[in-house]
Amino acid sequence: MLGKRIGQGRTADVWEYGEGRIVKLYYEETPVQGIDWEYAAGRYAFEGGVRTPKPAERLTLDGREGIVFDRVHAPTLLKRIGEQPLRIKAFAGQLAGLQFSLNQLECGNDIPDLKEHLRWRISAAPMLTTGEKSDVLAALERLPAGNRLLHGDFHPDNVLADEPPWIIDWMNAARGTPAADAARTLLLLEMGAMPPGTPLPVKVVTGIVRKRLATQYLRAYLRLSGLSSSDIGAWIVPVAAARLYEGIPLAEKENLAREVRRRLGKRQHN
Questions:
Q1: How far is 110 from 44, CA to CA, in rounded Å?
Q2: Fold classification of 77-269 (topology level)
């Protein structure tokens, strides 16, 4: 029943699984609680009307934890951007529109609270001093809670470019205020590290494209949501500090830690 491998990511790889389905099999180090949550959050989004592949089954296969999904045959939005960089404004608008739509869904206490989630990640984050963590946590406490569905990892590689598009990967979903979800996306677009060994010319071109994508995305999300740049900017420090806890490349962690310190320093001088 298990077919060929068709994808590989940071937490899992993806395999063909029978007719019209795929199975996402997680690596051993991926916490079971996170896998259970991805399944529950994916079902919540699907049943709430979000266009996301149906999570059909939670299983263990050959000793690995997994989730079976309905299969969607479509490239990622990231691939589309790489193929058609001149359409970046349209792609950024599409990204913002999809996120804004899902952020309108209200959810109850069965969805984890984002501020609680950020709080424990910040407390456990490497590369920050105890004092810096205290400052970040104090900034987090001043920010509003909310009851909207947040994806938590919304970027072009988690959108399948069908007509209309699909949204995938709900492991970081939470309940909160949309500005926080937009801040996380902006951070991923601006500061996500490229794979080790990426040639310098590719880094330069990719950096230019990403900067333009981030600018156009922010513009579109602000227009749709009525939020201000400062509403979203207020979430950058806690979201960046919490991301330090994740298993991301060292170069990205160093950039994030610098950005947290820079923004904390600016606040202290204002």
A1: 10
A2: Aminoglycoside 3'-phosphotransferase; Chain: A, domain 2 (3.90.1200)
